[in-house]
């Protein structure tokens, strides 16, 4: 299996890719499949893989590669029969890409664990996870957002802030009273030296998890309606409540007309619009802004 990257005409070996057989469906549908059999393996250093001991039946071949956004699906269905030996040949995965990267936040690894995970409230601390790689497994971390941002929501400045320290691991609601919560709007500030007013910019939003959320995107105006993008109600992972760091993966590609941007400082407003519980929220995996190919920004 090989990868194709925008920055190179050469293919890249998809070492350590996750490759599996699951019931026929759409790209990424294996995440939601829970009734049929699935058989997975990891590609070796050359991108080669073998899947053995498969239950007979009809499958699609799926794959994903950490470090790259998106999912792969081999379009030809595979029928597994006793004793069969199927060679799918060379597979090419082209991760979504329309133009050069202007900026990025996070690592495309399908988790939110690279972002800022706060220390737990001492009242709820689980000593088993103190100084532990899975430090997100502490009760009540969602409440720490309001402690850190009591009046205003998170603002992240590209080129200044560090996502490991300045991007909270989950965009959650803010408690405003007994069983009362408020939606939150995060800001990403970035500068553009040049703007292609006639071109289209792409904002890639890869989510590691979502629970009963509606992600809305606005450009340079937090109150404009309708927003440039709305996901609609998505997710039922409940990863926040269960002390997880990932759930079902979502990838949205938002088209932003160049006419919405200005030379100088711009702001993207990310609103999680639903607010009936403390566990509604989004865990981002990775965010990337791409420019039209004709634009070069320093």
Would you mind describing this structure in some detail?
It is a single chain. The chain has 298 residues and is mostly beta strands. It contains two helices and 18 strands. The chain has helices at 144-148, 163-166; strands at 2-4, 11-13, 18-22, 39-42, 57-64, 72-80, 92-93, 101-106, 155-157, 171-172, 174-177, 180-182, 184-192, 200-219, 229-236, 250-257, 264-272, 281-290. The strands form four sheets. Strands 8, 9, 10, 13, 14, 15, 16, 17 and 18 form a nine-stranded mixed sheet that branches. A hairpin with a 7-residue loop joins β5 (57-64) and β6. The longest helix is centred in the middle third of the chain and has 5 residues, at 144-148. It is globular. The chain starts with a strand and ends in an 8-residue tail after the last strand. The mean pLDDT is 93.
| Helix/strand order | EEEEEEEEHEHEEEEEEEEE
Q: What is the number of helices?
A: 2
List low-pLDDT spans: none
- Structural classification: mainly beta
- Terminal CA distance reads 34 Å
Provide the residue-averaged pLDDT. Answer: 93
Gross geometry: globular
Annotate the secondary structure layout:
Blueprint: E1 2-4, E2 11-13, E3 18-22, E4 39-42, E5 57-64, E6 72-80, E7 92-93, E8 101-106, H1 144-148, E9 155-157, H2 163-166, E10 171-172, E11 174-177, E12 180-182, E13 184-192, E14 200-219, E15 229-236, E16 250-257, E17 264-272, E18 281-290
Structural key phrases:
298 residues; mainly beta; 9-stranded mixed sheet; 2 helices; 18 strands; 3% helix; globular
